[in-house]
Here is the input.
Amino acid sequence: MIIRLDLQSEVPIYTQLKHTIIEGIAAKELAPGEALPSVRAMAADLGVNMHTVNKAYQALKQDGFIHIHRQKGVVVNPDGMPPNDDVFVERVQSDLRPLVTEAVCRGMSSEQFLQFCSELFAEFKE
Amino acid sequence: MIIRLDLQSEVPIYTQLKHTIIEGIAAKELAPGEALPSVRAMAADLGVNMHTVNKAYQALKQDGFIHIHRQKGVVVNPDGMPPNDDVFVERVQSDLRPLVTEAVCRGMSSEQFLQFCSELFAEFKE
Amino acid sequence: MIIRLDLQSEVPIYTQLKHTIIEGIAAKELAPGEALPSVRAMAADLGVNMHTVNKAYQALKQDGFIHIHRQKGVVVNPDGMPPNDDVFVERVQSDLRPLVTEAVCRGMSSEQFLQFCSELFAEFKE
Amino acid sequence: MIIRLDLQSEVPIYTQLKHTIIEGIAAKELAPGEALPSVRAMAADLGVNMHTVNKAYQALKQDGFIHIHRQKGVVVNPDGMPPNDDVFVERVQSDLRPLVTEAVCRGMSSEQFLQFCSELFAEFKE
DNA sequence: GTGGTCTAGACCACG
DNA sequence: GTGGTCTAGACCACG
Here is the structure.
């Protein structure tokens, strides 16, 4: 799994890393139960600090995407992913809102917007 | 136009304000050429720091949503909205990506996701 | 509010700080809406690192005991405390279990144990 | 005696093992003088590291719950359990304190809390 | 070896 | 000024 970070981005490195790992799971490059590099190994790989990786891992653990075992190290949650619950639905809706309103202002059609969404789903849903 | 800010949100207040104003334009509550309250007045209204309002206004000006005149004050861009250009398209796609990948992981169907997008467009496109 | 930390303790400093703040709320020394010292001020007061205080604050925020505002700084949750929910009930039960089993082994009577609990409640419930 | 470990728990495995063995003694599943599996056998049974079992056993020996003989192996202390001394009383009180203060904050009644304690004692005191 | 905790110190976004 | 992020480096508990 190739991880590319944009150190110049507004998006914090740990958030980028979190997103990339979730993307890796969505793309089935990372299977449930599969091990992730240790905090130190990942940090060395990416050339970032251990704590930055740890922050991403803790956030992923908090959300239920990964488990952090004392023994096995870090693994993708073998019991499946966190659910499509109300909290997530609300987050999707509130994250979409400013994107859609700006699209409306700029004259991007709903068709084009939906097309982008569909293409992304197609990229991950085999 | 009623502006509700969530002071506990992770989203910076100036970003929330920017989003709300863009939403106001999308909803046609704010028409091109229409005046917005001065930085000072808006700050007093919302009970937030003048710096915060100023930052939101500057960002909106930068993106072409509003004009800031010394005399006429702040107005919604009378010449129309900024375009649906490549930069925006790329931003939409890169903002949608982490949302869609997490949706895929959590088992939210593309149909449900697209439905949310459609509903948002329906809310603003009369 | 006087905070005493035991730097030699097995209990991490940030956990001790978390406990002390919860105790301060239980003792009504800290009222809902009341401000706590900033991360830096608290760290300077206690002679510990900013990050250690921040970790305690983040944990308290996560559990709903405090709010961290960009503007007002850190305040005791003005909307009241987190609820006595199932998760807490289970935590109480699972934390009590090893304590009670060892008490049984050592011949501490349930009367004495309950007495200790009652005294603690009496100390905080006015 | 069935030992269930939660490998995902925050509680160290050796602590969980220690707790379980003390619980076994409290439940009279393990009688004074009764043999426990060797470090090696226990580790194999539980699928954990020998170091982990050894650490639990050493801690139990330190506290006076078990004896470790070169020849006879590991046995529950035949001379009875460690006493209900001041050190234990202080530990009970200091362990109860953060639990009770959080219960007070969350609005758990002392009655409910005491009830949980009583139920646990009832489970072990026949 | 691995994650957890802690420190010291820096820069930046936010207000 | 305040919290958020990030780095570099250290020690320790756990396994």
